[in-house]
Write a structure and sequence with these properties.
Elements lengths: L13 E4 L14 E2 L2 E2 L2 E6 L3 H17 L2 E8 L5 H4 L7 H10 L6 E7 L2 H12 L3 E5 L7 H4 L3 H8 L3 E5 L6
Parallel strand pairs: 1-8, 4-5, 4-7, 5-6, 7-8
Antiparallel strand pairs: 2-3
Helix pairs in contact: 4-6
Length: 172
């Protein structure tokens, strides 16, 4: 895999909603990174129910911090399975338009990119100088060989900013 080209960095903070047994509901707090408050949040989606949980959490985080929310859909090049996957929205563009209306009072932008999901999420976050990337934890359980190449793990290892991982098990 080629190296990530994003080069703009904030001090890293890793927060995982639902990682501890005593946490029953994620708590959104005002996050201050260095001298500036959170201004841009990038959230990755594949239009699945699990990804929608991550988008909802990113929307709550954006509202609490007065941040702009960028919802990013990355389509793998040449992945014909995505066309017929019943777990994902049949019309991704329409799904993204509906997501924009889900968060009144929050500036929401959507983008569709092509390529490797983890790489494009990190590159877009770097390009936008985002303070936080939000992803779901789908693919983070199982054998080490499966987990090490999951999108959340790759984003966590290569992100140019803080990463917020949302527990999406209830949708899986």
């Amino acid at each position: 895999m080629p190296p990530f080209r994003a080069c703009w960095h904030h001090p890293r903070t890793v927060v995982s909603a639902g990682s501890f047994p005593q946490v029953t509901r994620p708590t959104v707090v005002m996050v201050i990174v260095g001298e500036r408050e959170m201004a841009t949040i990038v959230v990755g989606t594949d239009t699945s129910a699990a990804a929608d949980l991550a988008v909802d959490e990113a929307g709550r985080l954006a509202r609490a911090n007065g941040a702009e929310l960028v919802v990013l859909l990355v389509r793998p090049d040449g992945d014909l399975r995505a066309v017929v996957d019943p777990a994902k929205a049949a019309d991704p563009e329409r799904h993204l338009t509906q997501l924009m209306q889900r968060f009144p009072g929050v500036t929401v932008k959507t983008r569709i990119e092509h390529g490797d999901a983890a790489e494009r999420i990190c590159e877009v976050a770097g390009e936008l100088k985002a303070e936080t990337i939000v992803v779901g934890n789908r693919g983070t359980r199982g054998s080490w060989w499966k987990v090490k190449d999951s999108v959340p793990n790759l984003v966590l290892r290569h992100a140019p900013c803080s990463v917020y991982i949302v527990d999406t098990r209830r949708a899986q």
